[in-house]
Amino acid sequence: MRILILASAACLLAAPAFASPASAQDAAQDEFVAPPVVMSTEHPDEEAVEPYERLNAHAGATPFEGTAMWEAFHGSEGVSRIVDAMIDRSVADPRISGAFVAHDLIRLRRVLKEQFGYILGGPTTYTGRDMETAHRDLGLQPADMGALVENLQIAMSDEGVAFPAQNRFLAKLAPMRRDVITR
Predict the structure, then answer these.
(1) Bridge-partner residues for 47, per DSSP?
(2) What is the mean pLDDT of each run of 10 residues along the chain (183 residues)?
(3) Any idea what DSSP says for residue 137?
(4) Can you give the pTM of this predicted structure?
(5) DSSP alpha helices (H): ranges in the chain?
(6) Which residues have a Cβ under 8 Å from the Cβ of 55 and sit 6 or more positions away?
(7) For residue 140, what are the contacts with CB-CB under 8 A and spacing of at least 6?
């Protein structure tokens, strides 16, 4: 009986080698072909997205009053370095890198810089989607958010942002968890 099962398995594994040329052509035609990527006309380096209402309220938090937090994060250049470092770390982080596959990282960097800048009280307008819509289909879990926050903390520390300012910023971001975690 074991010999019969092993022989049957070997035949199944070898079957494609004996396929006719016509069936090989049929298999090639059945391969998935991705639709062409449509680029944005507003931001030429980004992929186009479905239209949506743009509101600062979509940033997920109210901004800090005054400019102290903006200055603590070293303004636009500091926020840019922090976001870039956080994204670079997250894309390379095996715990969460899969969440970034097939995403427009250029757009992600831009809207995160806008979001952070707006919340920190900088002269920035947020043009991204609301948090629930932006994260709806990602299937993020609490551990994913934890890894992202860890990467953000490292980026803020590397930028020289004081620990109390980091904590104040993270406290503004924390309530977004309910809109970001979907599993």
Answers:
(1) 39
(2) 41 43 53 63 58 75 96 98 96 93 86 95 90 77 92 98 98 90 77
(3) T
(4) 0.73
(5) 2-14, 21-29, 68-72, 75-92, 105-119, 131-135, 142-159, 163-173, 177-180
(6) 126, 130
(7) 99, 180, 181, 182, 183
